[in-house]
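Now for one specimen:
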Amino acid sequence: MHPFIRTKEANCKDCYKCIRHCSVKAIRITNGHAQIVPERCILDGKCVQICPQNAKVIVSQLDEVKQLVKSDKTVVLSLAPSFPSVFNKYAPFQLYRAFQKLGFNEIEETAVAAHYVAKEYQKLVLKNDFLISSDCPSVVNLIEIYHPHLIKYLAPVTSPMVAHSIMLRKAFKEKYNKDISIVFVGPCIAKMQEAERDNSAADYVISFLEIQQWLKEENIDVESFDATPIKSKYTDNAARMYPLEGGLLKSIGLEHFSSQYFSVTGFADCNNFLKNYDSLSGNIKLAELMICDDGCVSGPLSGNEYPPLVRKKIFEYEALYDHLPVLFDYDNIEFDLSQSFSDRHVDSPNYTEENIQAVLNKTGKFTKEDELNCGACGYYSCRDKAIAVLEGMAEIDMCIPFMRRKAESRTNKIVELDPNGVLEVDKNYNIIHLNKALCNMFEIANSINITGKHYQEIIDIDIFEHHKNPEKAFCAKSEKLDKYYEILTLDLQEDEIYVAIITDITQKIKNKKNIDNLKKETIDKATDVIHKQMRVAQEIASLLGETTAETKVTLLELMNVYKKEVD
């Protein structure tokens, strides 16, 4: 896992947007989820900025800082020079006092150190034929990992953040014999890595966005604080331009650009310069490189969405406050601001054309024409993606066109093998597709020649026009074929397609008729039997009635005879 950026897998939705925007393709896809590969990452923060699902999360040090300011330690806040672009509603000393309210003992702008770093550059420019600025940690990462042959041209001087930490520690130690803790606040993720790699750097790094949130949590109203400047020593304020394109050059005193001194911002331009150094260098003495477009004011943790507008705030701030307040007289303190660099190049195996082609073949790419190079997977070309698969950075099924064709193929196969008839028509009810089962059902000889025709030219059933209950089955009869069908229609409104799933229920209807006839015959027979039974019963009853009457007459006659004899 990346020590500074982690991925929330539950939020990662297989969109590959982070790969498309990752300048160096330092993202590995495993089981459909994106993970940043630390040894390849230059920490420009693009993946964090563009993730639509907020799946990329900065590993925050804010909780540790909150605990730190509550301790007995002296905590100094180093405030990155791009802060006016973020806190542009407040006067600088209102911010100072608001940050003190959070618990910081002292606040000083990192631009104070940038002033001394610029002095080191002035010396280096005189001694060297060609230099690349080393202030931007993402540029340093880019060169150390991807252009290590240019490390020798990196200016061997620390960044303002590291320089400021060195200066503050030494000054507090010399004047107060006190060890301090330093927190840097700025717009850059790469500063977190820089602080971890260099023991001289700040102890903690937090972002402008985090300290803004902290102020809100503590209900601190920055505008309520006094804007009066704090009594302090001051130094030149030119270093306040450091976060802008050309800021380093201005701090050195090279305001008028020439072919020997120039500034490059944005990954694409920086990388192109480094790739084409041999043809571009010429008389160049110093190239100021900054990985973010327009410089640090558009850093990934700045919250600034329109750098040209916020750039204006830096100019206004410099014009309004013509000197930088400082905690110490740094001119009288000696400190070492030198820096060294290391080759961190990641070797990639040289894959054969056969290896690459084998991967391409797995995604249905057998010829150059098959290689769409659409970039949907995040890679610049199908071959780049194939190499990434071989490196274990990408997965085969990241190829969107291939997966779509595969899904369509599966769907078509299922439709073709479906025993039910399937009919697809457009919004005008013209045939788009019909499967083999439908052809057999309606005795259609050749389905190829009927695509585009109105479906009722071949089917004598009103399937769509008058069916008012889509997705509810109904029955219809083909008079032409003397067949019955059960029909279910689907309205795919987004695609403007209607689909009918048709089942031949003729036999079922015939079976039902046979059963109905059998029931009728049974009922008729039962009725006839009942009638016959009734007649027999009536006849028996009639016979029984006659016999009873005769018996009664005989008995009466016998009784009369007996009576006469008795009398």
